[in-house]
Structures are given as C-alpha cells and as structure tokens.
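Lecture notes, part 5. Sequence design as translation. It can be helpful to think of inverse folding as translation between two languages: the language of shapes and the language of residues. The source text, in structure tokens, appears below.
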C-alpha cells in the first residue's frame, strides 16, 4: 500500500512539475502551421530531419492527461501527412511529423516561433515552381469540393464513353451502307428478292416479251412474260441440281439453259 501511494505521489509530481502540451492544431494557407498549445518550456524543442520525417523532442514536457500518453493527428494540409506525439518515459515528449511533397531545402523551409505560451512550427512550400507544387496548393480545398469534383469527373467520363460507342456504331452503319452500294454497282448483287423469289435471268423473245428464270425457295421455274400476263412454262429440276453443285453460277449459264429449254419446248 505504501508503494502504491508513493507511485501515485510521484505521478502527481510528474504532472505537476514541468511543461505540458494540451493540444496541437494544424492550419495555414500559403504554408503549413503547427501550433503546439499548452504550457511549453522556454527552450525550443530539439529537432532533426530523417527522410521525410521531422523528429521533435520537448525536454521536461508531457502530454495532457486526457490524451493517455499519445496523440495522433491526420493533417488537413497538403504539406503535412500526419503528426504523432508520445511520452518517452524519461520526462521528455517526442514527436514525429511526416511531411509531403519535395524535401528540397526542407531545413530552410522550417521555422519555429512563440505565440504567447504556444509554439508555432511553420513549413513553407518549395520555392521552385513545379507541377507538383501547383497540385499541392490546389489540394487546399474543402472535402465537399473534392467530392463534387469527383462526381463531375465521373459524369464526364460516362458521357465520353456513350459518345464513343455511338460514334463507333454510326461508323459501322455507314461503312455497311457504302459496302452494299459498292457491291450493287459492281453487279455483285444481281437479281431482285421479293418474299423468297429471286430472278436469276431473262431471255427476250420479242420487243415486249420474253422468258424469265425464277428461283422460288429452292425450286427453279421458267415463266413467260408479256405486257399483260405472266405464265409458268416449265419447272427446271436439273438447273436446281446444277445450281447447288456449282459455287459460282453465272448468268450466262442460265441464259444458255433458258435458250435450250425454249428450243426444246418448240
């Protein structure tokens, strides 16, 4: 019991004697400003740079009891990523500040000063103009602005994709139309189709009369054509067999077959 009481008294003496950091605020527009609030020692903290981390040590200083010996902060500023403070157990308070962006001339860009009892640590942007610097400065906008910008960007991407698909479909349709017209002009699509009826050839038998070879489904029919009537002359099963056997059946073959059939009927 006596040892517990002594430990309690030592703990009270620890917090009653020495300096204290009650909180830390991160602000700034043209530069990042970290304000260490509380009853701080007159001596500024020792600090050093290791890679992109600024390490601090406050001698004879502790955190306010409500933080439980450790304080972690995510920074709203583009130059600062996060900050952490913790008691080292030897009556010293240590801190780590993780920096963002270029480390060029970082030691000259860090300043410490007093504001009453508080300590203000400032970090300036790099002096050189660069795209990275401009991007970091533009990041100093509210989170709601970022959300709206992201939504707007997604909407623009969607509209772009829809327009691209429409352009591709239009190009394919136009290409198909031009191809069909070209083939028709070259005679590749001879004859006419009306409800599975295809005219394969025509043989004139006078000024306004003649015979025509039709394909109705799979059947070949020879018909006589005059200005006033159309009459079936004959069915041609042999032409059907020949048509199915030959891959490229030309009009000349049909004309010859029509002529032979006309002579046979006479």
């Amino acid at each position: 019991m006596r040892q517990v009481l002594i430990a309690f008294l030592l703990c009270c003496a620890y917090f009653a004697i020495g300096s204290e950091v009650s909180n830390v605020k991160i602000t700034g527009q043209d530069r990042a400003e970290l304000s260490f609030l509380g009853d701080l020692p007159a001596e500024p903290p020792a600090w050093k740079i290791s890679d992109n981390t600024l390490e601090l040590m406050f001698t004879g200083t502790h955190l306010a009891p409500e933080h439980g010996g450790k304080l972690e902060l995510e920074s709203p500023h583009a130059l600062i990523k996060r900050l952490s403070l913790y008691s080292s157990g030897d009556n010293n308070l240590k801190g780590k500040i993780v920096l963002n962006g270029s480390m060029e001339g970082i030691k000259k860009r860090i300043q410490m000063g007093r504001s009453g009892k508080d300590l203000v640590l400032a970090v300036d942007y790099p002096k050189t103009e660069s795209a990275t610097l401009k991007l970091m400065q533009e990041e100093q906008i509210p989170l709601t602005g970022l959300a709206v910008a992201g939504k707007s960007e997604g909407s623009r991407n969607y509209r772009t994709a829809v327009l691209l698909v429409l352009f591709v479909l239009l190009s394919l349709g136009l290409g198909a139309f031009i191809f069909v017209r070209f083939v028709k002009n070259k005679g590749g699509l001879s004859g006419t189709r009306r409800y599975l009826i295809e005219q394969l050839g025509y043989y004139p038998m006078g000024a306004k009369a003649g015979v025509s070879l039709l394909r109705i489904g799979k059947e070949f029919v020879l018909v006589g054509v005059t200005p006033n009537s159309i009459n079936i002359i004959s069915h041609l099963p042999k032409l059907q067999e020949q048509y199915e056997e030959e891959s490229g059946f030309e009009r000349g073959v049909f004309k010859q077959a029509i002529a032979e059939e006309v002579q046979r009927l006479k």
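The translated text above is only one of many valid answers, since several sequences can fold into similar shapes. Residues 223 and 232 are 4 Å apart (CA to CA).
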